[in-house]
Amino acid sequence: QVQLVESGGGLVQPGGSLRLSCAASGSRVSRYGMGWYRQAPGTQRDQIAYITNTGNIRYANSVKDRFTISRDNAKNILSLQMNTLKPEDTAVYYCNAGLGAENYWGQGTRVTVSS
């Protein structure tokens, strides 16, 4: 069992930055692949960044070169540094941890990009 708690969302102007964090607790969190997803109103939840337990990373094209995912396995924290934010980045951002049939979600943190 893994528990995930996101933080760091808020209101930011276009072109600004935010850093999201996801605190994970449970057994052997370092074994899990972890990712960030987002869901805007009326849309599906999409994966935007993913990091494997060995550190391999992939990004959605929409955030590539602007967002950076990282994980600290010693502290069980997953982070997402978001730069050059755009209004279309407005969404609820969710942390996910998965391993085989196991799949866990945080409660989400809202990011609003607006002037």
What does this structure look like?
It contains no helices and eleven strands. The protein is mainly β. Strands 2, 4, 5, 6, 9, 10 and 11 form a seven-stranded mixed beta sheet that branches. Strands 1-3-8-7 form a four-stranded antiparallel beta sheet, with no helix packed on it. Strand 5 and strand 6 form a beta hairpin. It is globular. The model has no long low-confidence stretch (mean pLDDT 96).
List the helices and strands and how they pair.
Layout: E1 2-7, E2 10-12, E3 18-26, E4 33-39, E5 46-51, E6 57-59, E7 67-72, E8 77-82, E9 91-99, E10 102-105, E11 109-113
Parallel strand pairs: 2-11
Antiparallel strand pairs: 1-3, 3-8, 4-5, 4-9, 5-6, 7-8, 9-10, 9-11
- Roughly how many Å is the radius of gyration? 13 Å
Main β-sheet description: 7 strands, mixed
Poorly predicted spans? none
How many DSSP E strands?
11
| Structure class | mainly beta
Order of helices and strands: EEEEEEEEEEE
Percent of residues in β-strands: over 45%
The average pLDDT is 96
Distance from N terminus to C terminus (CA atoms, Å) equals 40 Å
Q: What is the global morphology?
A: globular
Number of helices: 0
Helix content: under 10%
